[in-house]
UniProtKB/TrEMBL annotation:
The keyword Kinase applies. It comes from Protaetiibacter mangrovi. It holds the Pfam family DAGK_cat. Keywords: Kinase, Transferase. GO terms for molecular function: kinase activity. Signal peptide: none annotated. PANTHER family: METHYLGLYOXAL SYNTHASE. Residues 7-139 form the DAGKc domain. This is Diacylglycerol kinase. PROSITE patterns: DAGK. InterPro entries: ATP-NAD_kinase_N (IPR017438), Diacylglycerol_kinase_cat_dom (IPR001206), Methylgl_synth (IPR004363), NAD/diacylglycerol_kinase_sf (IPR016064). The keyword Cell membrane does not apply. The lineage of its organism: Bacteria, Bacillati, Actinomycetota, Actinomycetes, Micrococcales.
Length: 333
């Protein structure tokens, strides 16, 4: 792809979901940032149900823009990021959804009331390279599809929870809408029987309730699901949940909320964890660059918090440093 001409003012494209943003306010914030940072007038591209952002990002890249701002929910961010993967064109993030998963993991401000500050970060920040995940999923009818993701891919209870969440309720109350679905999926006693291969190693078999492949590890509510995950380390962090009864679920909850969310955030807490002789059996962590999983039956699958239907297997691989993201200049300094 032909690089932008350095002699010309930089130019951005705004890919926005009209349902998620206050367009008048966003246009005013962009116009101010363009003026203050010496950028040319931006392209404005509206998403639709049939075009959530991937094609629009590719269109903007063909116009040789320097940055594409994704103004929408996690689905918009994932789709725009997938369109920019490998182009060298940076992605700007605005807090416009309920999860804002990538922005949370990058330590960006996810308060929608700080829209103007987020726009200023995009126009006045610097580029930081992060990894992306690429996953090929197999359908029951024999077809396969390739998708990219930024945060997490998974199947089992988390994917079922997302599939059972009322989308209209999620629009109104955000992540609280998942509470009702949690009650439905926790009574699901069916176990997944999987065969998996990590980094081309020998095939192994396991029985799990959930398997998650993460490019980064934080969720809303200060939940640190994958405590060692880094968005730019060239590796996936993988967790399987294998609870046995109510005690198993309680142990998982303690492990994720207390140990990951509290103890691992301090040096003293990490020392206490290192003294523990036995790991939590219900939680198993792995790391690698490539993961191949086959299932014994079709299961719900999710990417970055969006449902992707039923699959019978997947192959996930890290694409290192394949996406540039705009970060606050203060963090570079």
């Amino acid at each position: 792809m032909t690089p932008p001409d350095p002699a010309k003012p930089k130019r951005a494209a705004i890919v926005y979901n009209p349902i998620k943003v206050d367009l008048e306010r966003l246009r005013a914030a962009v116009a101010l940032a363009e003026s203050e940072h010496g950028w040319a007038k931006s392209m404005w591209l509206e998403t639709t149900e049939d075009e959530p952002g991937h094609g629009l990002a590719r269109r903007a890249a063909a116009e040789r823009v320097d940055m594409v701002i994704a103004a929408g929910g996690d689905g918009t961010v994932r789709s725009v990021g997938a369109g920019l993967r490998g182009t060298g064109i940076s992605l700007g993030l605005l807090p416009s959804g309920t999860g804002n998963l990538l922005a949370r993991n990058l330590g960006l401000d996810v308060n929608s009331g700080h829209l103007e500050a987020s726009v200023d970060t995009a126009f006045g920040g610097y580029d930081h390279a992060i990894d992306m995940g690429v996953v090929e999923i197999d359908r029951e009818d024999g077809t396969s599809e390739e998708h990219a993701f930024l945060v997490m891919a998974g199947l089992g209870l988390d994917a079922k929870m997302i599939a059972k969440t009322d989308p209209e309720l999620k629009k109104k109350v955000g992540w609280l809408a998942y509470a009702g679905a949690i009650g439905q999926v926790l009574v699901d006693k069916e176990v997944l029987r999987i065969r998996y291969r990590l980094d081309g190693g020998e095939e192994r078999a396991s029985r799990v309730h959930t398997i998650l492949v993460g490019n980064c590890g934080s969720l809303p509510g200060n939940i640190l699901l994958l405590p060692d995950a880094e968005v730019d380390d060239g590796l996936f962090d993988i967790v399987t949940l294998r609870p046995e009864g109510f005690g198993g679920w309680a142990r998982i909850w303690v492990g994720i909320v207390w140990e990951n969310g509290v103890l691992r955030r301090s040096s003293m807490g990490r020392k206490l964890l290192n003294l523990r002789q036995r790991p939590v059996r219900a939680l198993r962590y792995l790391r690698g660059r490539r993961l191949h999983v086959d299932l014994d039956r079709p299961e719900e699958f999710e990417l970055d918090g969006d449902e992707f239907g039923m699959i019978i297997g997947f192959r996930a691989e890290v694409d290192p440093a394949s996406l540039l993201v705009r970060m606050p200049q203060a963090s570079a300094d």
